[in-house]
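Narrative summary of target 7.
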Amino acid sequence: MRLFVVLLVIGQALLAKDLVDYISQMDDASGQFLLETIDDGDVLSTSSGSFSLKKPNFLYWQQTLPVERLIVGDGHWLWIDDPALNQTQKRVYDTEMTQIPLLSWLVDSKKLEDQYVIRKEDHHTHLVFYLTHRLGPDDDSIVITISDGNYHIIQSDHIGIDTHLMLTFDQPTRQYEFGFIPPLGRDVIVQQ
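Modeled conformation, tokenized:
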């Protein structure tokens, strides 16, 4: 029985390492995103735009539809610019990224091993990873499908809301995107 438990633990560690290794190979990435929130088959919201990330702590997330919004992680601060509100929020980067699991594991893939139990299915055309949160409710989960280097991520929560994130990697990463200066006249709210 102990040998079985040891093999099970080793197997889980290898699956986690496999996914972490796969994501860790990506030092930087850029492309397009489509984000949908779905409840019982009904699409509640849809947004799209472009993104860039550079490990370990840089993020650029420009939403263009349905409204413009820009999120920039410069390694120290997470800037959230909302032109419609004429407002920019300045938040502590590390604190905020832990609240955005769909993005935080792309920037820091090592968190996957600590936070999730991982199961892998290897299909001929794509890989599918099933992640169950170690400390959360049993029905909180993430499914990551990787096909042709693109990601389709589905996060399901315990109240039945699914968040679908499709990432298409098709652009070069531009270093200048990771700096942010609030536009003149914009209200800046600092949250510590």
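The domain at 2-191 is CATH 2.50.20.10 (outer membrane lipoprotein receptor (LolB), chain A).
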